[in-house]
Amino acid sequence: MSDAKSYVEVSGMVIGSGPIGEYDRRVVLLTRQMGKISAFAKGARRPNSALVAATGLFCYGKFRLFAGKNAYTLVDADISNYFPYFRMHVEDAMYGTYFLEVMEYITRENNDESTLLLLTYASLCALEASKIDRKLIRSIFEIKTVVLEGEFEEPNYESYSQAAGAALRHIAQAKISSLYTFTVDGAAQKELAFLADKYMQRSFGHHFASLDVINTMNL
Q1: Which residue stretches of the chain are H helix?
Q2: CA–CA separation, 80 vs 59, rounded Å?
Q3: What are the residues facing 7 on neighbouring strands?
Q4: Contact indicator for 58, 100 with CB cutoff of 8 Å
Q5: What is the spatial distance between Cα 121 and Cα 58, in angstroms, rounded to a whole number?
Q6: Which residues of the chain have pLDDT under 70?
Q7: For position 1, what pLDDT does the model report?
Q8: Which of 66, 129, 135, 211: disulfide with 73, CB 3.0–4.6 Å?
Q9: Dihedral angle at the C-alpha atoms of 178, 93, 58, 182, nearest 10 degrees?
């Protein structure tokens, strides 16, 4: 019988999920305690498996893992939010998938990624609430990600329109809990989108596949 100390419990979100073999699944978790970790969910693709629902993208909750010699195995999960909204709203789901892809790329194992996890959760909730244009949510998410990664260079706010400058300052300084509390007009939103793209390219320089889908669908 395995030593109980070989088991760990983490709180987090499934940010990546894919099939392994005929019945298994590999998941990537963004956790409060251990940063980004990968785990195998044996039998998770079997219809009667208790892990079927718990290994889907966006699932947020507590995950119990067996710490093997070379890998983690997902044993069970207590999911507090499945984000079912995204199963019925494909356009918002694509933006949510993009947010997860960004997190999977920039986060690391055993790093303190708790703030990025909080940002991801808040951003998904903002999409679900549908009170703010999804393109603005994307810009806010991107700029705040750059800020949290320490890549944000304080700009000359006066070089932008008053609305865009004020929004940029708010994004840079606000707590995540009050991040998605404003809207801007179309012109300012385009300014923010341009700035966000510039920051992302300069900070990470990575091509995110989910953006191709967003652009192709003109979302």
Answers
A1: 85-88, 90-106, 114-129, 134-148, 162-173, 186-203, 209-216
A2: 8
A3: 66
A4: yes
A5: 9
A6: 1-5
A7: 40
A8: 66
A9: 0
Burial of 123 (0-12, 13-18, 19+ CB in 10 A): buried
CA 70 to chain centre: 26
3-state secondary structure of 31: strand
- Grouping H, G, I as helix, E, B as strand and the rest as coil, residue 143 is helix
Helices and strands in the chain: count of H runs, count of E runs: 7, 5
The answer to whether 78 and 27 have CB atoms below 8 angstroms apart is no
Tokens coding 27:
């998941």
Give the residue from 91, 34, 31 showing the smallest Cα distance to 60.
31
Cα dihedral across residues 37, 102, 83, 42: positive or negative: negative
74 by DSSP, 3-state: which?
strand
Q: Which residues of 5-30 are buried (b: 16+ CB within 10 A; e: fewer)?
A: eeebebbbbbbbbeeeeeebbbbbbb
The CA-to-CA distance between both ends of the chain, in Å, stands at 52
Tokens of 150: 């320490």
- What is the distance between the alpha carbons of residues 215 and 217, in angstroms, rounded to a whole number? 5
